[in-house]
Amino acid sequence: MSTHDNTPAVVDQTTHDRFPNPGMPPHRPRRADVDERASRRAALQVVIFFTLSALGSIAFLVAYYVIDPELKGTIIGIGEINLFHAALGVTMAMSLLGIGLGAVHWAKTLMPDEEVAEDRHPPAASDEDKAAVAQQLSHGWRSSQLNRRTAILGSAGGALGLFALPLIVPVAAGLGPRPRGELYRTHWQDGLRLMIDPSGAPIRAADVTQGSVFHVMPEGWVGHQAFEEHGAEEAMISKSKDQVILVRLDPSIIKSQKQRDWGVDGIVAYSKVCTHVGCPVALYEQNTHHLLCPCHQSTFDMTDDCKVIFGPAKRPLPQLPITVDDEGYLVAADDFREPVGPSFFERERPGLLMGDDA
């Protein structure tokens, strides 16, 4: 029968003292450390790599603007490819590779490579330590040979500076032209009938009973008609900014004179695009006369020009001026007098408030 001794082993704490600290391995000078010609050659190679990167960045920009994005080509072993994308990929790789090779070669051949061990010291540095750090930084600057190899510093700065352009230019160009009046105008205009969405039926003022709600779009921009006449893109743009909610209120509870003047016998029309982040404000509470945005619960008081009474929205919903035509149908009296939807830069810029292109 075997037995096991479970008694924990006792470690002799003096064992660690039996092995002397080996210290740092001896430094082996590189060829560039002892041979000035080798040092100059290494510096030239670093400059070449950084210059290669700069040329790659410039080639990227040239390819971006010169090559047709739809140009196709065939490469043996790969097949048909888009030459525009291939050119952008090759030039971007050239730009990255040049920076990487230049930095690595610089570090391996010219930068200091001695191992240094630093003992722990109190967090508060003495004046002597500060002076020593400054001396070490000065020594590092000199030993990196940047004070002598200004071509490396210039080529590295040029490569890194130009490398930012392929990242910035496509993003900036892809944003499209600067928005102008299209942020201030919708498709509503004087005389356009209010059409029920999505049926496309016009609305007589006499048919709008108190408390009733209609979701309307401008004439010619409703349902399939908008897609067929204007195309899918324009139809979707119209849907995103032209949508309006129409409600008939008791004129006696309307607090704003402007609200009465822009309505018809208590019938008022407001943009459905929430002024917070643009969700459709489509929930109407008949008892409180509140409009509720379902996304973030912004609440607007329809009796007080759709001012915000709760939630993150900061601006009232814009009112659409309406009137009645000769046949008794509700029509727009004008476009909105302010931009619909969330706020944006330059929203209050004079001269653009009414949608000018100036």
Automatic annotation (TrEMBL):
Keywords, A to Z, come to: 2Fe-2S, Cell membrane, Disulfide bond, Electron transport, Iron, Iron-sulfur, Membrane, Metal-binding, Oxidoreductase, Respiratory chain, Transmembrane, Transmembrane helix, Transport
PROSITE patterns linked: RIESKE
Domain Rieske positions: 262-331
Show the Gene3D superfamilies listed in the entry.
Rieske [2Fe-2S] iron-sulphur domain
| The keyword Endoplasmic reticulum is assigned to this record | no
Topology in the lipid bilayer: Multi-pass membrane protein
Where are the membrane-spanning stretches? 46-67, 83-104, 151-175
Q: Which InterPro entries match?
A: QcrA_N, Rieske_2Fe-2S, Rieske_2Fe-2S_sf, Rieske_Fe-S_prot
Q: Where is this region: Disordered?
A: 1-36
Q: Where would you find this protein in the cell? A: Cell membrane
Question: Which family does the entry's similarity section mention?
Answer: Belongs to the Rieske iron-sulfur protein family.
Q: What does this protein do?
A: Iron-sulfur subunit of the cytochrome bc1 complex, an essential component of the respiratory electron transport chain required for ATP synthesis. The bc1 complex catalyzes the oxidation of menaquinol and the reduction of cytochrome c in the respiratory chain. The bc1 complex operates through a Q-cycle mechanism that couples electron transfer to generation of the proton gradient that drives ATP synthesis.
Q: What is this protein called?
A: Cytochrome bc1 complex Rieske iron-sulfur subunit
